What does this fold into?
Amino acid sequence: MLDPKLIRTDLQKVAEKMQQRGITLNVSQLLALEDRRKALQTQLQDLQNERNTNAKKVGQAKAKGENVDALLQQVKTLGDTLKSTEDEFNQVQNELQQLMAVIPNITHDSVPVGKSEADNQVARTWGEPTQFKFIPKDHVDLGAKLGMDFAAGAKISGARFVVLHSKLARLHRALAQFMLDLHTEQHGYKEIYVPYIVNTDSMYGTGQFPKLKEDSFAVKHEGEFYLIPTSEVPVTNTMRDEIVEAEQLPLKYVCHSPCFRSEAGSYGKDTRGMLRQHQFDKVEMVQIVHPDKSYEALEEMTKHAETVLQKLKLPYRVMTLCTADIGFAAAKTYDLEVWLPGQQAYREISSCSNTESFQARRLKARFRDPVTGKPELVHTLNGSGLAVGRTLIAVLENYQDEQGRIHVPEVLQSYLGGAKIIE
It folds into this structure.
């Protein structure tokens, strides 16, 4: 959530930044509510002062043995007015809160301004698109003979689910294990295991709710619970309502989990194969850092995700997302796009974002400033390191041969019992 002070002191700047995202703020509504909030707050303070004064008068009159009926009636009338004013104040506060909850983060000044994903900018590339002496197949055609069963997934659950058999299932597991080992042993992350079902507060805390509620899978149970769309949600929520000491920062976590998304806003998009599934695995990196270090941390986290692709020798490019394509909670995002020969295109495989204090404000996630001794908001970051299913697709398509066999990347062979070929 944005700092409410921005709405009170520099609403025009907020409106301009939202316009860059393609969002038009109802400035007059926000100003009217804010003016009403201020007036009611002043009125409440005056009424509370008057109530306290009258209470003293009642006490003094009783001490003198005077009749206090008239004073008590004034106190009662004042109390009724105070209660109705408090109710109106809370209603206005609630309306402001609801409006604020759907305003996305302000983008960093280094984010390119754009109108669509076509305006995203290439930051750098690594490797050259894989070349073959034959027409490469996509992962669906390759997987059909190797144990990728979409018919079974549809029978069990419906469209956009898959069953992986035998060596493909093991390759999928090997990829996740390789990523976890790399991030914990070389990049300084602590592995964490979290629930796959979370409550409404958790989804609100990281910015999934209320804006992205339609993309979530609700769990039928007493109370409101949801399957996680990413382990970013439970991992980051471990900091909710917490205050850590400054010397404990940065906190760096890595988590492997399934992710569940209804993909409500992507009807008809990427329906072929494993590119856009309702259930997929991801190895997620989360960092909780000092505000002065968050952009340094963003560059570091992006490099960590890139290292996975480099060790797998998969060609990719890094994209700086423009204002129109950046996520709701993000202030700046890099997407990693891997080369898929079957599509002859780069496709997203990781997204690394700095949300600055946007999530932390909702979560009340803070550190204690050693100079002032006061709690201050941390900055939170998250990044895929990587999406496991899409990495599986990239390995299948980039390491295929003319016979439809898959040559196992060297760094994965030890995870597959030394196997060099999947056929």
The chain has a mean pLDDT of 94. The longest strand covers residues 279-289. The chain has two domains: 26-101, 117-422.
